[in-house]
Amino acid sequence: MSKETLISHLRNIPDYPMEGVQFKDVTSWFMIPEDLNEIVDSIYEMYKDKGITKVCGIESRGFVVGAALAVKLGAGFIPIRKPGKLPYETVSLEYKKEYGKDRVEMHKDAITEDDVVLIHDDLLATGGTMLASYNLVQMFKPKKTYINFIIELYNLNGRDAFPKEVPIDSFISIDEFA
User: Residue 17 has what DSSP assignment?
Assistant: First the structure.
């Protein structure tokens, strides 16, 4: 399947969550088994030889592909969640978003210094949530950390928020208004 075919299946929702935003709804891909398989298999190919031991998925769309990747990679899955959603003791990090503050959390025993971590989310726009998640993971001092997105909205320059040495990959790179 081509990336163009996948892009044609991507649902755009204008003015969500606020006016002027062109929301890319990846759940339209999750409903089509061939699309979901193509995404998971393609991202797996990017990381199959990297020694990944933990995959962190960011709430909530990052859980879908992140968990599937963890299974294919033979790695553990770690949810990165909004406050108050995890039942055990957590570590957390507050960060600024375009329209306020937010916080990400994960269990305090989720990652060790021996882990090689892949942090996955559905979309890179401005990078705020992923940067906070990356910084949260770095508190555990893993051996290596990779970052992955299904979609990158390249015209928003989200990867500029990250240190240059951080490996960032996206499966599909498109303009926000595509």
Answer: S
What is the pTM (predicted TM-score) of this model? Answer: 0.95
End-to-end CA distance of the chain: 19
pLDDT, tens digit, 9 for 90 and up, residues 55-86: 999 999 999 999 999 999 999 999 999 999 99
State mean pLDDT over 33-53: 97
Cβ atoms of 84 and 59 closer than 8 Å: no
| Distance separating alpha carbons of residues 177 and 155, to the nearest angstrom | 9
Distance CA 3, CA 135 (A): 31
What are the residue numbers of the active site? 61, 98
State residue 97's pLDDT score.
79
- Which position has the token pair 């303009």? 175
Token pair of 101 as six digits: 């503050």
Structural tokens at position 162: 């990250």
Three-state SS for 67-97 is HHHHHHHCCEEEEEECCCCCCCCEEEEEEEE
Distances in Å between the Cα of 51 and the Cα atoms of 4, 45, 84, 171 are 30, 12, 31, 19
User: Taken in order 26, 27, 33, 39, is the CA torsion positive or negative?
Assistant: positive
Picking from 151, 161, 148, the residue whose alpha carbon sits closest to that of residue 98 is 161
